Amino acid sequence: MFRFRNEKNSYELRMTDIHCHVLPGVDDGSEDMDESLEMLRIAEKSGIDRMILTPHYKASHHNASPETLRKRMEELQSEAAEEGIEVELALGNEVMYFSELGERYDEGKILTLNGTDRLLVEFHPTADYMYVRNAIDDVIGMGFTPILAHVERVECMVADPERVYELRSMGCEIQMNAADYMGVMGRNVRKFLQELLDEEAIDYLGTDAHDCRKRIPDVRKCLSDLYDRYDDEYVMQIAYKNADTIFEHKRVRGSETDEQSE
Ligand SMILES: [Fe+2]
Question: 165: CA distance to ligand 1 center in Å?
């Protein structure tokens, strides 16, 4: 494992990404296999050695079936191996919340993260807080542990961090995008994320990478900055420890105990 030194200390350049659009030709992320391979090269250089691929699932869209996604992931994993890229892949969806989500899941059309109870859920940026809160309650009632995707992109959350704490107290987990932490969404959003980090109210760092030009999976500066400002153990948790439990264990929906995956 690489160790890097920033102003404060040396730290592990390592991350497990739970949110990215690296799978080719299935959503608004990577367009083709070449772009996906380039994204994996960027990720690997940046210390990312595991990625959960999370193509969008939106009720209003035509969504690729889990079988198609799985087949394409296997192709990508084997092409990556041929290129000597050592990034381990798993599969999930980023689901835009909708009221028939439970039915679609039961029909086998929606994927949780790596077959666990974790469901990556996104909301429209202008969604109303009561809508978000009721939706999270609904998802928890279905037996999932929701992970709120890029909390900083939901305006009602940025307007009042107390709402983040409320969702967490209900059992929701929180993901932030590395690029947004680095200021892509402006100073106000960065300040909001810093406040959440001070309270250790972020559970996962994600790239939400979409391509190899603008929204790229490069987290080097972000990790350096995080290790500079926050407790090392906490940064390791959000960079890879929490995500590794999703990679290595199966918490099946509705079960109380962790089950080791094969
Ligand atoms: Fe995304």
Answer: 22
